[in-house]
# Entry
Amino acid sequence: MPTLNEVAAAAGVTPATVSNVLRGKGRVGEATRQRVLEAIAALGYRPHLPARALAEGRAPTIALMVSSIANPFYPEFALAVENALRRRGQFLIICNTAGDPQTGRAYLDQIAGTLSEGVLVMNANLDFEDLRMTELRGAPVVLCMWERPLDPPGLPCVAVDFRSAGELAAKHLLELGHRRIGAIVGSKVYGIHAARYDGFVDAIGAAGLDAAAAPVLYTPDTTQGGYAAALELLKAHPDLTALFTTNDLPALGAMQAAADLGLAVPGDLSVVGITDIQLARESRPALTTVAVPTVEAAELAVALLLELIEAPAARPQAAGEREARVCVTSAPHLIVRASTGQVREGSL
Amino acid sequence: MPTLNEVAAAAGVTPATVSNVLRGKGRVGEATRQRVLEAIAALGYRPHLPARALAEGRAPTIALMVSSIANPFYPEFALAVENALRRRGQFLIICNTAGDPQTGRAYLDQIAGTLSEGVLVMNANLDFEDLRMTELRGAPVVLCMWERPLDPPGLPCVAVDFRSAGELAAKHLLELGHRRIGAIVGSKVYGIHAARYDGFVDAIGAAGLDAAAAPVLYTPDTTQGGYAAALELLKAHPDLTALFTTNDLPALGAMQAAADLGLAVPGDLSVVGITDIQLARESRPALTTVAVPTVEAAELAVALLLELIEAPAARPQAAGEREARVCVTSAPHLIVRASTGQVREGSL
DNA sequence: CTGAAAGCGCTAACAG
DNA sequence: CTGTTAGCGCTTTCAG
# Structure
């Protein structure tokens, strides 16, 4: 691989000049410029990114921390992130933490601030202290989908109003006449989906129903989790006419459970999810869900991160400044498909 | 961020010594060793990867080229790749080509041989010439799932015997008594799934059926593609009792089409796929499919790539050496789930 | 067993 | 407008 020096030699100029034409900085005469360009083309020169990174003191990659890229939601997000990054000349490194904070820390220690200029965090179950630490070490961190815009995490983040997503889903069921609604929350009791469930509780409370009486189950955020939870819920409460779910994967699982119990969806049971992943469109019946602006969130996250990278001055100096930036995406919106319907006659 | 020099100063040694203890090379006295280790811990030193890359002349990342990481098969593969890489101290960069050779080339030009030491290619629709070019520039390339072990591509690859996968799927249907079987091939006529279809043709030919008479449709390798193809096939040939599909996504789509046509799976129609992606387990009915050793393929691909990286001598010198390495994974195997069943009575 | 010195490929001041 | 001079942080001979 030819180096910049060789190009310079070939063009009869100094490395500095080549560097200048290469990136449009400094003033270079049109004649030399052409000569250099020709030499570059002739030798097939390509800049050596690590060398550039070293000289510039900034790395050409961003790390995306996820628990597992195989989780069906992440790739859609990662795709959007990568596209946004590429437009800005950065590359994307995928870091699977397997939900293990130790693994996450190991990653951060290795690449944050060296190979990667910044870190995007997507539900990777990382230790917040580790993230603050990496910030202090000079690598900005952005949380990609913070659940509660009103309750900032003390770390820069892109927030989605998931509470309103929960509300929208619940209201939709209420409007269809459902009164006995079960809830499946795709995380631990105090987990990340709490805001979605809060929205649900608000909405059914506002409708005059006893939110506390609505059966709820916490379960892992997976198809299987939703399946098991739905089975349990429907056996314990055969009179339920609808299931509210804090995520699409569990919703899909719930639909399978319904099928296995011989319940027709939406004839006997309505099911609603949140997120609108691809699978939601493709399932049969197609899933009614509250769409979350994934691409927008990805773009905001990238923009925010790069902004923080450019403005090192604005980074937290010490433990003092807890006024981290919060970007909020546009609002989630309901997408009615085939998994929800009017409550069946006499089901109250 | 503290540098190696600072650590050296703190420990009262030279950078070279720190470098040596850092990576267990060279001989370092136990006393100094401890002193250095302490300094490292005290300062929170972490090696600067790009600097190391520059000095060593080798980059710490591998690029994975895919058409879109959002394709449900790729993340499963990418996860396995990333795990294998991490064990060997490399990081994974995701490159989405959107199926566009131009984009692919742009990626290769930018990172192959500079930021990334090697390239893994997964159906990214890249120009083989571009790949040979990157090889010549010093960045080994490995094709991740070559379809025809007997027909090597002239580039190092991990091959999977997809022909036998097609055979297994077909034989399974035949054993269940199916005789009127439609085929849905998830790619263009001369596309990557040809081997799978060849296996199918062989098997039904061997069973004494007229393979040429079996209805076949080519379609994009997506759920929608399979859905549309199945609809068309079933309308044109209402007497079909089974559908062979070259991939799971189209198979899933075919099941949806069956549902929409009021056909019970497997009662009225059996459907079989190839790959065994996660969704295959989770669909209702669960998809019978031929499992492909994804994780094994990922590990072999990584091992092969790193081997090629370590052995620069063995790289193709010019256009001469077309004896590129081919690794074959263990054989695909049938996984019977719920989407296939005995042919229905009197259906011949 | 440890130190000194050179250089990886590139950028960034500053001089001319 | 272009050349000179220093590094960026690390590894790696080669001496001592």
Remarks:
- The CA atoms of residues 154 and 322 of chain A lie 5 Å apart.
- Chain A touches chain B through 51 residues (CB under 8 Å).
- The mean pLDDT of chain A is 93.
- Residues 3-5, 15-16, 18-20, 22-23, 25-26, 47-48, 50-57 of chain A lie near DNA strand C (CB under 10 Å from a C1').
